[in-house]
Design goal:
This protein is of the alpha/beta class. The chain is built from six helices and 15 strands. Helix content is 31%, strand content 32%.
């Protein structure tokens, strides 16, 4: 099941989007839980972390959709945000909050379904997990939650958004396990999730939470190429 929030102050558009989502459930045989909100303020009062996808109108009364998205991104990097807008001029603002896509009103059902199918495929990939043994316990970790892995005191430490995990699996083995999930080596002691890189230069990487990871000169060129390729393939 995928959980979706529609934040739209026009009831006619709420109903239209729900109708298109219900059509999509039948079309590709998936299960969706759909909640609706008429304002961004209403959404922020609820547990928005429960949602996989947020369909967010930009031009709402009160706080704009972009401002709501900024508030959400302060605490949640994983909700996939699709902006709904009647104004093409507002599209540039989406880069700051990592919006998946914009849909221009009036929304066409073919474009809507195409967007949602692509998004659901991306979420499936993000929900992939690894299972590790850490400090004598079996742990299940979502790959999308991993910021980076680092060699520390002959162990590999997995750094996620919530905590760290110590493993005896080598970094080279982790390179193989995480191949295809958007990770790259800026240094022989690090493996970084490219989705959390917000700055790169020849000396360092700055992650989206402002943590700094240093880059080796020998690895810089390849890491930069892989990062640019990752950015180019984001929809």
């Amino acid at each position: 099941m995928y959980t979706i929030a529609i934040c739209e102050d026009e009831i006619i558009w709420q109903d239209k989007i729900k109708e298109m989502l219900n059509d999509l459930q039948k079309k590709i045989k998936i299960s969706l839980k759909i909640d609706t909100y008429t304002s961004g303020e209403e959404l922020l009062k609820e547990d928005f972390n429960q949602y996989d996808i947020l369909l967010l109108d930009i031009q709402m009364k009160g706080v704009s959709g972009v401002e709501i998205a900024k508030s959400i991104r302060k605490v949640n990097e994983n909700i996939q945000i699709v902006f709904l807008t009647a104004l093409e001029s507002s599209w540039a603002e989406g880069y700051a909050v990592k919006a998946y896509r914009y849909l221009l009103k009036p929304i066409q059902i073919e474009e809507f379904h195409e967007t949602m199918i692509g998004l659901i495929e991306a979420i499936k990939k993000n929900k992939n997990c690894i299972i590790i043994k850490s400090d004598g316990e079996i742990k299940r970790i979502q790959i999308a939650q991993i910021k980076y892995l680092a060699i520390e005191a002959r162990k590999v430490i997995i750094h996620t958004w919530d905590e760290t995990y110590k493993t005896t699996i080598s970094l080279s083995e982790w390179n193989e396990k995480l191949k295809g999930f958007g990770f790259s080596n800026p240094h022989t002691s690090y493996l970084v999730n490219l989705k959390y890189v917000k700055h790169l230069d020849r000396e360092k990487i700055i992650l989206t939470d402002n943590e700094i990871i240093y880059v080796s000169q020998r690895k810089y060129k390849k890491f930069k190429e892989e990062f640019v390729n990752y950015i180019d393939n984001i929809k």
